[in-house]
Amino acid sequence: MKNTKKKHYDVFVIGSGIAGQTAAEICREHNLSVAIADNREFGGTCANRGCDSKKILLQFSHLVYQSRNLRGRGVEKLPKLNWKKVQKFKRSFSDPIPPNTEQKLKDLGISLYHQSPNFISKTEVEVEGKVVSADHFIIATGNIPRELDIEGKEFLKLSEDVLNFKKIPKSITFIGSGYIAMEFACMLATLGCKVTILERDKTSLAKFDDYLVKKLITKMENLGVAFIFNADVTGIQKLKKNLKVSYSVDGKSKTHKSRKVINATGRVPAIETLDLEKAGIEADKDGIVVNDHLQSKSHPKVYACGDVSNKSPSLTPLSGLQGYIVGNNVVKEKSKTLDVPCVPSTVFTTPNLSSVGYGEEEAKARYKSVKIYQGDCSNWFNAKKENEDTYAYTILVNERTDEIVGAHILSSKANESINVFATAIYNKMTVKEFKRMMLTYPSYSMDFKKMMENK
Ligand SMILES: Cc1cc2nc3c(=O)[nH]c(=O)nc-3n(C[C@H](O)[C@H](O)[C@H](O)COP(=O)(O)OP(=O)(O)OC[C@H]3O[C@@H](n4cnc5c(N)ncnc54)[C@H](O)[C@@H]3O)c2cc1C
Ligand SMILES: NC(=O)c1ccc[n+]([C@@H]2O[C@H](COP(=O)([O-])OP(=O)(O)OC[C@H]3O[C@@H](n4cnc5c(N)ncnc54)[C@H](O)[C@@H]3O)[C@@H](O)[C@H]2O)c1
């Protein structure tokens, strides 16, 4: 490459998702000269090909699911989906994201690059045929799907492909059963697709509450999802109409046929093309190694935020917060520290599995005595009125102080109601204080008081 044109910025941001945009905007607000590069459409994963698009599609399968539950109880006909129109509706949200993001950044006076830069020294990258230097670099490149190194890997599709399906396939296999597989499995099974999940581990969603995950798996099996655990996937072969997945369980070789096979085995930091070693930026399997100021531990002029930093979990709200911290720390070094007491999270399955605070093992390791409120409430009013057969909870309390330290809910409204527990845990509320709060009736949040009753 001929390095004829040279450019210098105060700050060069790599990645235009929520983390990169947030950091770039803060730097620009403080009159720093800022450039941002992205090697794909501007706007990042969540808005273009993640959370938002997924949630739009899920509401349609949820509508079908709810109508089915209430069929014969007032619902006569099930809704008939026009998937082409559903996709068009989804695109009406996602299509404007890249141009609108670019326009917003340009209006702020931020320079845009449409390529992956690569470091050539501690202070320079090469991008679009130019050498660009900067006082600070912000790496905000997010995660990308983990590559599965198996025979026939070229036949694998990704979450992004599921979001863009032109029609619901007759059958599908997910390799992996984390967030992505479990959410899409519920959607597709509800819409008539035969879903099989091949999971390497002995269970799904390993980081979530075991009692609730078991109930969720049973529920999904009732929706028609087949789970195969301890599966070692070895290859994929293309047949006339189907794909044949080869795998083994306990040393026994097996095969399974379906129209599509999705690689949902996790996401890894998007750092491969950046040539980090040329700038002396240290990274591990979780991403760029940063301190609590989200500053690279090996290169203090480099910051990392969002999924690509090694501060998990990889979720949109945390990525936004990290972008905010990095933007402020570039403007004024060490002015902000990442201090996240609890990050709520929902797996948007049927029903939702939501979690905030400590899990049982973590709580037991941290506190001398942990009180566990756990139970099935599928016979309570909220579930019964929806003819929903799955509703359960695990709530963890530090027995010495009566403080709520973890809440895990499996219910159709858990994605919203978990925020009540997030507020309670953030504010270190005790069970007694929680019960003193007035909450709306009837509501899923109101049920939380009853869940924490001594039996
Ligand atoms: C299908 C799916 C569903 C999800 N659902 C949810 C959800 O419901 N709730 C939730 O909280 N989280 C969800 N997530 C996770 C969420 O999308 C991420 O945590 C969030 O987008 C991370 O933001 P970020 O800014 O760190 O990275 P990203 O949004 O991934 O942005 C990184 C940007 O960097 C660019 N980039 C990558 N490599 C390079 C390079 N070499 N050079 C230049 N640019 C580069 C990318 O193109 C991208 O635009 C979901 C993810 C997926 C895949
Ligand atoms: N609702 C949400 O907030 C949401 C939704 C989607 C994604 N996300 C984010 O994106 C990340 C990635 O999601 P994901 O579902 O791809 O990953 P994940 O890490 O949640 O799950 C991956 C699963 O694949 C399994 N696996 C790994 N290798 C395997 C193999 N070779 N064969 C079979 N199984 C294998 C793992 O044991 C695990 O169960 C999540 O961790 C989360 O941070 C969040």
Automatic annotation (TrEMBL):
Keyword entries, A-Z? FAD, Flavoprotein, NAD, Nucleotide-binding
Cofactor(s) the protein needs? FAD
**Domain FAD/NAD(P)-binding intervals:** 9-320
Disulfide feature: C46-C51
Which residues does the record give as FAD binding sites? K55, D307
Gene Ontology molecular function = nucleotide binding; oxidoreductase activity
Cite the binding residues for NAD(+): G176, S177, G178, Y179, I180, A181, M182, E183, E199, G266
Q: Where is the Pyridine nucleotide-disulphide oxidoreductase dimerisation domain?
A: 343-451
Q: How is the cofactor bound?
A: Binds 1 FAD per subunit.
The protein's matches in Pfam families, at most eight in alphabetical order, are given as: Pyr_redox_2, Pyr_redox_dim
Q: Does the keyword Cytoplasm apply?
A: no
Against Gene3D superfamilies, the record matches this protein to: 3.30.390.30, FAD/NAD(P)-binding domain (3.50.50.60)
Q: What PANTHER family does the record point to?
A: GLUTATHIONE REDUCTASE (NADPH), MERCURIC REDUCTASE
**What family is it from?**
Belongs to the class-I pyridine nucleotide-disulfide oxidoreductase family.
Q: What is this protein called?
A: NAD(P)/FAD-dependent oxidoreductase
